[in-house]
């Protein structure tokens, strides 16, 4: 006989949310990975001119977004160049979206036992989103370290460490740096859960407002695109600096003594602008990525309910 508590817990598990979120994250990452690659490379570039950077002369300096795409493509081609590091990115984004939406909705069901189900308040959404976001980043941080390392492999890098693929990267990081290396950037990553909270809460609030205003239960693709784009733009603009700090901590070509050291050195050498490096490719990526993710998410969710 099944324990009532176990039965209740199992009944709250939102498998459909995980599959829908996973699908959205995978599709968006496959399509838009080149923007993610360029964003990461911009984020770690500490100077504006190669002659100023004596410690890392092999690190390429791009004059614009188009120059970055052209340079990387010319050097390594499409697959080995612009899609360098795509495997951990697809895995990381798929797992992040899947876990986040799975945990968010599971917590919602677990703590909302009333029937009919009560409407979530803004405070409810903030709490559930923070729980889901923090748990997700703790689980997925090692994947982001691997992605960053693979995206920052340069053709003329003066280093003996080269990563052939994702598995090779994991093995070498563990062997040479230990398990702690997989949690570099975790602190700014946890702070970055504010990003996900702002994005998802604002998306849900807009969606709820629309449903109540127009007395409908399903959103059109246009509305999903509009709400997801607005929510992502809001979140990205407010919280972007944490991404620069996290990427620099995970950079295998530089060594920092923690978050405070990154912040001090970035501000001292580059000013406030240093914390917004790579914002252009980031926005070019995150807005369409978010739109694709939510469209796929809503579509898969509807299909799974049939």
Question: What is the top-level CATH class?
Answer: Mainly Alpha
- CATH superfamily label: Mitochondrial carrier domain
The general outline is globular
Which residues form runs of ≥5 with pLDDT under 50? 49-54
* Overall pLDDT level: 85
The major beta sheet can be summarized as: none
Q: Strand fraction band?
A: under 5%
Helix-strand pattern: HHHHHHHHHHHHH
CATH topology: Mitochondrial carrier fold
Query: Structural class of the helices, strands and pairings?
Result: mainly alpha
| Strand segment tally | 0
Task: Write up what this structure looks like.
The protein is mostly helical. It has a single domain, classed as Mitochondrial carrier domain (Mitochondrial carrier fold). 72% of the residues lie in helices and 0% in strands. It is globular. Residues 49-54 have low confidence and may be disordered.
Entry keywords:
306 residues; mainly alpha; Mitochondrial carrier fold; 0% strand; globular
Entry summary:
With 306 residues, the protein is an all-alpha fold. It has helices at 4-12, 15-44, 65-76, 78-82, 86-111, 122-151, 166-177, 186-191, 193-214, 221-239, 241-250, 259-270, 279-305.
Annotate the secondary structure layout.
Blueprint: H1 4-12, H2 15-44, H3 65-76, H4 78-82, H5 86-111, H6 122-151, H7 166-177, H8 186-191, H9 193-214, H10 221-239, H11 241-250, H12 259-270, H13 279-305
């Amino acid at each position: 006989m099944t324990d009532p508590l176990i039965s209740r817990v199992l009944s709250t598990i939102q498998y459909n949310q995980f599959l829908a979120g996973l699908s959205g994250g995978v599709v968006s990452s496959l399509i838009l990975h080149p923007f993610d690659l360029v964003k990461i490379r911009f984020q770690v570039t500490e100077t504006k001119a190669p002659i100023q950077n004596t410690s890392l002369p092999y690190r390429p300096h791009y004059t614009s977004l188009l120059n970055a795409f052209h340079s990387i493509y010319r050097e390594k081609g499409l697959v080995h160049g612009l899609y360098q590091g795509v495997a951990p990115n697809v895995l990381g984004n798929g797992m992040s979206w899947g876990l986040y939406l799975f945990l968010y909705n599971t917590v919602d069901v677990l703590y909302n036992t009333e029937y009919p189900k009560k409407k979530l308040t803004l405070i409810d959404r903030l709490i559930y989103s923070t729980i889901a976001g923090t748990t997700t980043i703790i689980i997925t941080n090692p994947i982001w370290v691997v992605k960053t390392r693979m995206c920052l492999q340069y053709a003329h890098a003066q280093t003996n460490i080269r990563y052939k693929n994702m598995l090779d990267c994991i093995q070498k990081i563990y062997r040479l740096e230990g398990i702690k290396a997989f949690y570099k950037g975790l602190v700014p990553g946890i702070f970055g859960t504010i990003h996900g909270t702002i994005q998802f809460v604002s998306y849900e609030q807009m969606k709820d407002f629309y449903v109540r205003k127009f007395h409908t239960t399903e959103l059109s693709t246009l509305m999903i695109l509009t709400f997801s784009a607005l929510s992502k733009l809001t979140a990205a603009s407010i919280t972007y600096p944490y991404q620069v700090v996290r990427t620099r901590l995970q950079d295998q070509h530089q060594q920092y003594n923690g978050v405070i050291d990154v912040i001090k050195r970035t501000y001292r050498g580059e000013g406030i602008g240093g914390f917004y490096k790579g914002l252009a490719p980031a926005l070019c990526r995150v807005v369409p990525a978010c739109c694709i993710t939510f469209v796929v998410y809503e579509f898969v969710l509807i299909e799974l309910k049939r």
